[in-house]
Automatic annotation (TrEMBL):
UniProt organism field: Deinococcus puniceus
Pathway it works in: Lipid metabolism; fatty acid beta-oxidation
PANTHER family reported in the protein's UniProt record: 3-HYDROXYACYL-COA DEHYDROGENASE FAMILY PROTEIN, 3-HYDROXYACYL-COA DEHYDROGENASE-RELATED
One Pfam family from the record: ECH_1
Name recorded for this polypeptide: 3-hydroxyacyl-CoA dehydrogenase
Amino acid sequence: MQKLPVNIRQAAVIGAGVMGAAIAAQLANAGIPVMLLDIVLEGNPDRNFLAKQGIQRALKARPAAFMDASRAALITPGNLEDDLKKLKDADWILEAIIEKLDAKRDLWARVEGVAKKTAIISSNSSGIPMHLQIEGRSEDFQRRFVGAHFFNPPRYLHLLEVIPTAKTDPAVLQEFSDFGESVLGKGIVVANDVPGFVANRIGVYGIVRAMQHMEKAGLTPDEVDVLTGPALGRAKSATFRTADLSGLDIIYHVANDLGKATPADEDFTLTDTFRKLVEEKKWLGDKTGSGFYQKTKDEKGKTKILSLNLESLEYEDRGKVSVAVVEAVKNQPLAARVQALYTAEGKEGDFLRGVMNDSFWYASKMAGNVSNRLQDIDNALKWGFGWEEGPFETMDSLGVQTVIANLEAEGRTLPPLLAAMKASGRERFYSADEVVTPAGEPTPYAAPYFILTDLKKDATKIIKKKAGASLVDLGDGVLLVEWHAKMNALGEDQLRMVQDGHKAVQSMGYAGLVIGNQGENFSAGANLPLVLAQAQAEEWDELDDAIKQFQQTTTSLRFSPHPTVAAPFGLALGGGCEFSLHADRIVASAETYMGLVEVGVGLIPGGGGTKEMLLRFTDQLQPGQQTGATLLPAVQRAFELIGTAKVSTSALEARALGFLRPTDIIVMNRGHLLMEAKRQVLALAPGYIQPTPRTDIPVMGDAAIGAIKSALYGMTEGRYASAYDAQVATQLARILSGGVGNNRTAKVSEQHLLDLERDAFLTLLGKKGTQDRIAHMLKTGKPLRN
């Protein structure tokens, strides 16, 4: 038997449609060279036209398919006639062609003739069973074949269903799952080779049943989306916006196919209205512009969303729909919201209980069918459909025996899993270290990688805790400062916990410190309401002290006697960015949106961010360029980055912008972030030497201010910048000049630049223009151009 490749170093995607091109883009995001092949388009002189078109489509996609447009260079376009033989170089070959069994079988016959004997072979089919595709192929080919079902868009949806057949080598399954999780950054669900696999089987069932319950209750699509969206812990697109995004034709075909392939009691029957939309109206959702919703523009050109009237099949402008039962609970925690909605009265309550009980009954029926683990079903719906909790987690929240009693009251036959739970009297599927099997028996459960919520179940790991931050023992001599405030806005709790973390590392003999968390975002920056309140109360001494403390805390990550690692993800803005910049090393999630955005509220980065970018960009100049006018490119680069509040669209772009250094690390799977940050602390700790603040930063004095003001004049005259933008930018220019007057060859210290930052921050905070900008941002969430 041939030895399998240790790593997938090169891949090939066959089929350059929307999905195939997007999968190729995600491979490129991960740094994997990939061939993208499609058929030769008859009559077109460019034999690679379809593959090139796929790449261009991915480049233009919104949301962006590429984390950095330069990664498109890793995709080589080709065609199945001229380039089939090149598949011999691929370690992994994936098809994403038309959903027809004969076409897939024909393709695999051709691929087997050229693929190397160690290549892993996969299909991205969303519904055609894998074992049917490989009938007639050799035993060796079949053992290396495993389904790989991505969800669209592949960059953003975490789920990857991996579907082995009875012939798949367990080593192939393990190797490919590890590759998908660690290299591609996916959440892996091992699905059984059954119709619909996991997420689509349960998700489409939910959409079909929601349509039935909606018509029975006399609700509208937009009312249902309010009921089944964030209030219930599900995605903003809820039920029918999700249907429009997916394509009503896709749901139509999947539901019909599943209806034929599943028992009658599962009921994938589409309503007459749904059928009319697809068969007669040809309204297929976003792809045709009309579905359950229709996008249009008003007389001012502003986009409006119209909702479908199910009786007249006309679109109506219903404005923002409000549902009383949701309004009553929207500010409560998820568990309380779910409990209240499950027990609500009226037609909304009847609808919600019907939909939720369908979900509970069907997920339980599918346990052991679509997957052999309950957590795979929960994860598939969380990662593929954006749910906060899966059905088994939600039943735990409501009480399993309560759900069972409600299902029996409706006259439903309990699936074996729920029958076993009733017999045992268990109230939960999950406990601290166990999860129930599909047979209803508890089995040990351990997270596959470090998950903070699991760690918190052991109270001995919490060293210190405040309302907005905690100090957590990560094990192996590493401490974690975890922020857990709304948007992780930076206030007193967060700063003090960083300081306490440094003290604990030294007093308790730890190796180092990680700054990270597993909230929605790493940190959206400073606590603006507090800053504005202090400015309006003219508490200038208190503000001066607060900025000093903030600077001391951010720079402490650089100048502590032990290594520090920042683990940003999601939004890392303003102060969140500044904390990251000062760590010895950054371990960033690939989906990190980092930026110094203070100018948007009329301020400048005051926690060392301005200083740090000037220092970095001057250090990147050649030695002979680090004086006088030759410093101008570094100054301009820092000014443009900060003055335009540029935010990276990924960690790859953050590196290109200068927020990440070559030594910093990008992790594709956010779930692995803290584990890798801990590893980096342990790698830095042996022989760590405490850095000292720099005193040799070259600056170019008033010449920098003159150059920036000249550029500002053109921007204000061209109305690219407002009058107040110019005032803020002038303060920024003063810092970047070094504040040394006409001395073009001066060198200053980091502390000198920090002092300039603090002075500029306070100066701007005292101006009405800045206070108006902060107030407007807090009220509307949008910047004010004053």
